[in-house]
Amino acid sequence: MQHTFIEILRRALDEELAHDAAVHLLGEDVAAGGAFGVTRGLAEKHGAARVRNTPISEAAITGLATGAALCGLKPVLEIMFIDFATLSMDCLVNQTAKYRYMSGGQLAVPLVVRTQAGAAGGAAAQHSQSLEAWFIHVPGLIVVAPSTPAEAYGLLKSAIRLGEPVLFIEHKRLYTMKEELPQDAELLPIGRARIARPGTDVTVIAYSAMVQTALEAAQTLADAGISAEVIDLRTLLPLDMAAIAASVSKTHRVLVAHEAVLNGGVGAEIAARIGSELFDELDAAVLRVGCGFAPIPFAPELERALLPGSADLVHAARRLMGKG
Amino acid sequence: MRRAGSSLVTEPTLADWTEMYGALWRIRLFEGQVQRLAAAGEIPGFPHLSTGQEAVAVGICTQLEREDVLFTSHRGHGHVLAKGSDIEATFAEILGRRTGLCGGRGGSMHLVDATQGVLGATGVVAGNLALAAGAAWAAQAQGRRDISVVFFGDGATGAGAFHETLNLAALWRLPVLFVCENNGYAEFTSREEHSNVKHVSSFAAPYGIATQTIDGNDLPTVFGAARDAIEILRRGAGPYLLECMTFRLAGHYVGDAQQYRSKEELAAMREKCPIERLKRHLLERGVAQQELEAVAEHTKKEVLRAVERALAAPRPDPATVLEFVYRAPALAAIPG
């Protein structure tokens, strides 16, 4: 039987609440299920003390979760939209990420901050952003961005057990995606990318919902005789450079695709790393596809016009192959 | 404080007060050494001294169990020492030495000593309030009776996090003691220029938080108020906001010329020095002048010895600079 991304996240949280008494969920509206229903029914099942509503106070609840993580809990904090994580930034950047280091290894922050990002359905400029690049700049954080329901299941469970502060970014466009998840589905490793589709001519590196876009593009390219390998990064910090290197040494051509703008983005980091570490493997300059450099607009026509789609990826891949 | 083999002292004897007199001196002398060595260029960064505010640290921390956790601000040396951290390791951290509490990675503004429940100082004003509430939540959720204490200055009340945390702590009845050291200045600017709200304790009422404004330079007053507040927290009837009116005899940081304060103002503050006040109090109650001098002298030797040893301690090995970003060894090699 198939389940949506939301249902599968709920199963992961449900299982982790049952697995470890230290796990607690908190966030705005989470006891009632949260804005997207991810935590629906969990307060009833695990008790209101373990699935707690908070006031709309992102700064305080991020600090609260961090302090609790220092003292024996394993909180899973929901920040409803990544756009609101701007209000959590002081704590996440100045405290949460640095605690292990500043204390010389005395303390750790086993905290997962689940948040939801990306553009879809006219959520407009303050509920649609892809801000992941802000966080990969911070030593001490782990940043995870799953691409499918089953991936989200295995990665979320691992994130909760990791013992480090993890920003877990869910894409709202994936929430309705359905997949089957076996009863004995396994945990997935943090920090390891996967090959979402093998290929030989060009490597397309993506994460989150863009993996689905890349898979569509790969199918179109296959029809045109170009074999694209799609790498799903899963984890943006740390980057799995070994997986990237293995693919690049096979295809010698790389396209990095993400929904975030290109300036200072994850793609910029990957392109720079490939340029300095794998230059001899390249047959063409690394290309990037991302969002146009503007806030996400409201009107559907404008939103579509700004966001990168599979046609943009196909076009870039053809250019890499000298067929543009 | 605790007498050998007994529970925490709640009704101090003259001997206990005399011991606390030594604790005040310990902080004063420790920070005197910080000032001296910072001026001499031996201490990196810009340490902030609590000179003149020692009674708040001693009056409160003396009544905490080791398991109770403490969070503090950029002006936290006194709180850390009063909670029980080793003088030498604390000084070594401020010097940036390998033997420091955090191996030289934290420094004056980021002291952590987990073994003593010192969960950290922060350089961001109001940055630790919510963490302290979180620690209190963890204790509550796990059915422990520990409490959490956070020290902050009056400047922190301008931050949204202060109000957010007060609301949340009251809503969840968290066992957290908010201690505001109201020294009248937020960095270089007087409280009058920061806010129309004269007393920080005024912020407690709308949230339904028990509060008191006290003379923070009178050790017995601080001790009594803290004992009552802690008793409320242990009963699960927290949180509590204790506003301690005090004075910062030092500048905002070592090197601050304090041109924003008049000589007369500073002279008036010195009159209210908590050490002098406790001394007068103890002399009135019959403690011999000589005994108090001996306590101060003994403490001076203790501090100077610790400082000497800290100065002789090895510096950190630069080859270890990437350790502790993540848990070793699995994620230690994560490239930035």
Describe this structure in words.
The complex is a heterodimer of chains A (324) and B (336). Chain A has 324 residues and is an alpha/beta fold. Chain A has two domains: 2-180, Thiamin diphosphate (ThDP)-binding fold, Pyr/PP domains (Rossmann fold, 3-Layer(aba) Sandwich); 194-320, 3-Layer(aba) Sandwich (Rossmann fold). Chain A has helices at 5-19, 42-46, 58-70, 89-95, 99-102, 132-136, 149-162, 210-223, 241-251, 266-277, 300-306, 310-320; strands at residues 2-4, 23-27, 51-53, 74-79, 112-117, 142-144, 166-171, 178-180, 194-197, 202-206, 228-232, 235-237, 254-261, 287-291. In chain A, the strands form three sheets. Chain A has a seven-stranded mixed sheet, with helices on both faces. Chain A has a five-stranded mixed sheet with strand order 9-11-10-13-14, sandwiched between helices. The longest helix of chain A has 15 residues, at 5-19. Chain A starts with a strand and ends with a helix. Chain B has 336 residues and is α/β, with parallel strands linked by helices. Helices cover 41% and strands 11% of the residues of chain B. At the A-B interface, helix 3, helix 4 and helix 5 of A face helix 5 and helix 6 of B.
